[in-house]
Amino acid sequence: MMRFLHLQIPEVFYYAQKAVLHPTGPLFDQETQTLKPRCVRALKRIFILCDHDRDGALSDAELNDFQVRCFNAALQPSEISGVKRVVQEKLQEGVNEHGLTLTGFLFLHALFIEKGRLETTWTVLRKFGYNNDIKLVEDLFPVPIKRAPDQNMELTTEALEFLKGIFSLFDTDGDGLLHPEELIDLFSTAPESPWTEAPYKDAAEKTALGGLSLDGFLSEWALQTLLDPVSSLENLIYIGYTGDHSSALRVTRKRRLDRKRQQSDRNVFQCFVFGPKEAGKSGLLNAFLGRPFSDCYNPTIDDRYAVNVVDQPGGSKKSLVLREIPEDGVRKLLSKRDSLAACDIALFVYDSSDESSWKRATELLVEVASHGENTGYGVPCLIVAAKDDLDPYPMAIHDATRLTQDMGIEPPIPISAKLGDFNTVFRRIIAAAEHPHLSIPETEAGRSRRQYSRIINRSLMVVSVGAAVALVGLAAYRVYAARKSASS
Predict the structure, then answer these.
(1) pTM for this structure?
(2) Rounded (5°) CA angle 61-63-65
(3) Which of 71, 77, 206, 214 is the most exposed place for a label (fewest CB within 10 A)?
(4) Residue 325 pLDDT greater than 70, yes or no
């Protein structure tokens, strides 16, 4: 009995080690006897990366490259033929005239696992950077670049060109749209589709059937890069970006520096949309996404995002992100010192037919402007007079003129979502954001501080000039006294 136990101990250790190093759970579903979805997604990505000529099959040369990369050993022609023969006998569509298909590649790995050769599939996954959760290891992603609160991340031209190519590749019917099934296919090499939940779900313009244009597709990427640059980079790599990972994203200039230079070099602008309840904020966001007007009021509970491309004069394009801040969420937002740091421009929407809506909007404007003055993150502000199809309240023009002159900003921009008249408001938002030194409101407290600071600076200047005059006089006197002493 002791001899039997002695003989079994090495084998027990072997299988225990194998279970730890090459677990079955993440790869294979024992009940259905199939590869698990995340494993399929990872193997599909590996297949695509190895299919250099993009013909949907691994040729003998591509199979050999794959073998050398994963196992440091080449296959003999007879061994390659043997592999393909095994696959074809079990699965006719696993091999075609070009080589081993994706279906065959997946079948081969399922066969390895069924026969207990899990180390083969795990070796492949790990050679391509996957961990035990079948996600790419963090070492593959550059450490997030340190940046100031008023700096954002954007996709570089190189990354955008890659995404345009990916869009064309997966637009299989060539209609200029990615339909839901095409988008699912595009992200089929990532652990999951990244845009199925808020804030990305329904954030971009789509057709009635859910089709996403190239502008809409790039807008989703712009939003994800703005809000979660690490996740954006991960998904770029998952869908096949093979360029230098550090060249995919760029850090924008500090907004404070933009203000000094009186010009912003950003391609993506974020606009915070404030306003009282039922002012028309959601209607503005819906119109921005090309959605029809609705009289039905659905209050916004949480922050909501809408992103689209805005055509500029001269043919250039800028991405605009509208972030709707519910009225009840303003206090929580402004409780953080750097809450306005990520904001390029603030929009204040009010119902032009309702005096109480105007008063609340101006209160919010003062709150936001004061926060900007106190923290150094002041932002350009615009006011939007929504529901222009209704009659304005009696003192509307007088009140608006007085406030905008007192605070040093532009008069309200009238719009009507019901009539589809938006008075080029989205271009005007971009234009104001591009010139961050203008349209920054000044409160009474801010004006008093500025005047006080000016008085102090003048006083210091007078003192400095007086001190300089005194020093010059003292030096002259010493020269005079020295000369007089020498002559006597």
Answers:
(1) 0.85
(2) 70
(3) 77
(4) yes
